[in-house]
Amino acid sequence: MSADLSAAARRQSVALTGFLAVQSLAAVFFIGDVVADFRADPASVHVIFEGLVTLALALGVIFGAFALRRTLETLRAQEAALDVARGALGAVIETQFQAWGLTPAERDVGLLALKGLDVAEIAELRGAAQGTVRAQLTRIYSKAGVSGRAQFAAFFVEDLLGEGLPKAQAV
Fold first, then answer.
1. Architecture per CATH, 101-161
2. Are 78 and 37 in contact (CB under 8 A)?
3. I need a surface site. Which of 9, 14, 17, 75 has the fewest CB within 10 A?
């Protein structure tokens, strides 16, 4: 999903860059037109109005470029933070699996369970019987001190949320 968001953000930034380039070309054209009109009739109301509109367009291009730059920097920072969070969650999971004393097979099954795969999918991926996977999940839940898959996943979600959701204020 984050890859989809990242690709969409990249497409959007390319589109904004293209739009900014077209605006820049229009601003250059209108600046040249205003200069030519000003040489011909400097006191014309038309020239003054066209000059103000061209100035507004040029300022829009400048502010648009700053906004695009800030947006791209924010996107880069968010992608970097997401990469760190992914790595940190992986490290937290691995550390916890070690603390629980999971075997390598149990670690693999536990990770696949956390990713949302069901028993049949895990068994197929691992080339094991579904009964074996169920037994491994039972041992994992026992070592983790949880009663099932929901509590197992919630254990790690709580780490991501830190203090959890804020409590509702009484009105």
1. Orthogonal Bundle (1.10)
2. no
3. 14
Length of the chain: 171
Cβ 101 vs Cβ 142: under 8 Å: no
Query: What is the distance in angstroms between the CA of the first residue and the CA of the last residue of the chain?
Result: 37
Contacts of 52 (CB under 8 A, 6+ apart): none
Residue with tokens 């989809």: 4
Residue whose entry in the numeric block shows the structure tokens 């949302």: 116
Tell me: the pLDDT tens digits for 126-155?
A: 999 999 999 999 999 999 999 999 999 888
Domain residue ranges in the chain: 2-83, 101-161
Question: Distance between CA 98 and CA 138 in Å, rounded?
Answer: 17
Task: Retrieve residue 150's tokens.
Answer: 């929901």
- Residue from 76, 77, 74, 56 nearest 66 by CA: 74
* Residue 55, burial from CB neighbour count under 10 angstroms (0-12, 13-18, 19+): middle
Q: In the predicted model, is pLDDT for residue 122 greater than 50?
A: yes
